[in-house]
Amino acid sequence: MKYIEEYRDGDLARQLAASIKAEADPSRTYHLMEFCGGHTHAISRYGLEDILPANVRMVHGPGCPVCVLPVGRIDAAIWLAGQPDVTLCTYGDMLRVPGSKRLSLLKAKALGHDIRMVYSTLDAVKLAQNNPDRKVVFFAIGFETTTPPTAVAIKQAQALGLSNFFVFCNHVLTPSAIAQILDSPEVRELGTVKLDGFIGPAHVSTIIGSQPYEYFAEEYQRPVVIAGFEPLDVLQAVRMLVRQINDGRFQVENEFSRAVSRDGNAKAKALVADLFELRKSFEWRGLGLVPYSALRLKESYAAFDAERHWDVPQDSVADNKACECGAILRGVKKPIDCKLFGTVCTPENPMGSCMVSAEGACAAHWTYGRFRDTKAPAP
Amino acid sequence: MSLPRRSHPRPLDLKHGRVDLTHGGGGRAMAQLVDELFVAAFDNAVLSQGNDQGAFDVNAGRMVISTDGYVISPLFFPGGDIGSLAVHGTINDVAMAGARPIGLSAGFIIEEGFALADLERIVKSMAAAAKAAGVPVMTGDTKVVEKGKGDGIFITTAGIGMVPPGIHISGDLARPGDVILVSGSMGDHGIAVMSQRESLGFDTEILSDSAALHDLVAAMIAAAPGIRVLRDPTRGGLAATLNEIAAQSGVGMEIGETAIPIKPQVLGACELLGLDPLYVANEGKLICICAADAADTVLAAMRAHPLGVDAAIIGQCDADPHHFVRMKTAMGGTRVVDWLAGEQLPRIC
After folding, report:
1. Model confidence band, residue A145 (pLDDT cutoffs 50, 70, 90)
2. Angle at CA A175, nearest 5°, toward A171 and A179?
3. Contact residues on chain A for B323, CB-CB shorter than 8 A
4. Residue B321 touches partner A, C-beta closer than 8 Å
5. A contact residues 322-351, partner B, Cβ 8 Å cutoff
């Protein structure tokens, strides 16, 4: 695999780790948050924590699209799937996320709702085209990376003159989530969570570019290094962050220059701007209501908006009381701090969203890292 | 060999005909299907006795029996089909006890409307696989279910075999310090099948590795009769199979990421689909665990056989009380190689 294996070279990884160790100030600790679940996954899967020095600590962030969706929105999707003539489709990971009342889309499907997994938004359009008597609702989730494909699907449905294709829009925005974390009392006032710098998103940044992070690097005085999802990308980004912190700098740097530019993908951004507008506020699991952090369809595309076509419940539903997903998504707690972790909550039977997606912090730790825990649950 | 044929006024229309309910009804149509297709293709003395059971003599000793259902979709895939798979898979399950397979049974559940041409293709492929392996299909059964009550065809095969004297191979015999080997590259079958699924549809040169492994096993136990564990990593791939053995034997395991043979095309397809090749199914590979001092002998025996040329030592067992399967990554870190959770689903971001 040309252009992938180069970024998984073990010898280079050890050299990078040695240089991080040499440059890191032994008298201090570096708390670095990787925002994206893709980075969390890479760190766990390649065992990178084993080769980083002990005073460089990785804090897992909320950048897992499946994890941040609150229970209320999952319940709303299940509600939509139960409406007459509705076929609800979504990405695979979403199916297992628990809603309230022990339901998930997968369980609702087993109860007889027409719920399908699709690999692409265009498969959803095809479903609508081939089933004119069904109302096909695409349950759209994800950060800036998955928003343009949703926009393309709507454009295509419009071009095909489909009146039975709808989008239940849950697209969220990365920069507002990072700002919300930095504004949280744990970081600002209580000092219980130390965050010295961020590894910025890989795929999200290919769309939005590096420019949107400049504001909060400056405002919150924290360095950001945008990095790819391969293990050498992560290590290189850690070294760049350590250097910035040592120098007292707080700039946006781009390790992922092979895919990310300052301005991002102009065509994708224009398409998103054409179809979507900001919601005043949107609920995130773990972060609560975050102002201007999500998108909805503009009035001119109202015909495709499931929230306009149906009276979709907008209730906020509390997480399971014992589930620590919220605190884990904010970086306040680690998976092993949760009482449910590995006892009643496992990937086979997830109680919280962080255990569902491979990108969730709990799933990553369970799947790859739990042998390190002193009281490791049996395989 | 075969009995004098019952005469049927018109032969089966294998070109354009379709299976209907009478083919499973116990009457003349079923007899004709059995005679003209199954008995003709499987052509062996035991089956041709025409009884409800196959009768044969065995020597005294230790026998094994195994059964497996085949429900694969699509029925035909690069490197094989449901028929050859149903022969190879069950022979391999028998062979993983170190046994020499003696014979197979085959049960067919066919959906009404299934093309006789496809059925013939499958049965001929099955017969060819059984002949090449030297393991006859000694008895069989045919059922037809109504349209919509099955997905084309399901096949169940059972196999019996004799374990040579002095051989004792079982999943609970791995001990700390033992060495873990694989007979070749991982993940070929799963990727070959997935490439044909309509929702994925990508082109690949990867062929399924579907193959009967009893001859390789015979060569291995001839070289090293003390082999402790053999198992073929089918569903759930290498990861699931190692976890099964670790739990059964009460040992931990550590494998090396760089030691596991995986074809670049498989790695590429897995990358594209968001899959981990360690969890992708194989149908012509085996895992072997043996004492450390026998490892080189076993490896040499495997590599000397056409189905083991890419064999490799991938790790060893240890005394981890939690029975974790761990992997030393190419980066130098360590991670768990866990059981598969649910189905492998592509990542979305």
Report:
1. very high
2. 120
3. 378-379
4. no
5. 346-348
Interface confidence (ipTM) of the complex: 0.76
- Single out the residue of B329, B200, B189, B339 nearest to residue B266, CA to CA: B189
Pick from B247, B275, B107: nearest CA to B172: B247
When scoring A11, A14, A40, A50 by the number of chain B Cβ atoms within 10 A, the one with the most, hence best to mutate, is: A50
CB contact under 8 A, B341 and A347: yes
Residue A22 near chain B (CB below 8 Å): no
CATH number of this structure's domain B179-336: 3.90.650.10
Which residue on chain A is closest to B246 by alpha carbon?
A379
A119 vs B260 pLDDT, higher one = B260
Count CA within 13 A, CB hemisphere, residue B240.
Answer: 18
Predicted model pTM: 0.84
Contact B331 A13 (CB under 8 A): yes
Specify the pLDDT at position B345: 44
B contacts of A65 (beta carbons < 8 Å): 348-349
Interval B45-50 mean pLDDT: 90
CA distance B183 to chain A (A): 23
Q: Output the CATH code of domain B21-163.
A: 3.30.1330.10
Least CB-CB distance to A379: which of B332, B338, B349? B338
Which domains, ranges and CATH numbers included, belong to chain A?
A: 5-65+179-254 (3.40.50.11750), 71-171+275-309 (3.40.50.11740), 325-369 (no CATH)
Q: How confident is the model at residue B147 (pLDDT cuts 50, 70, 90)?
A: very high
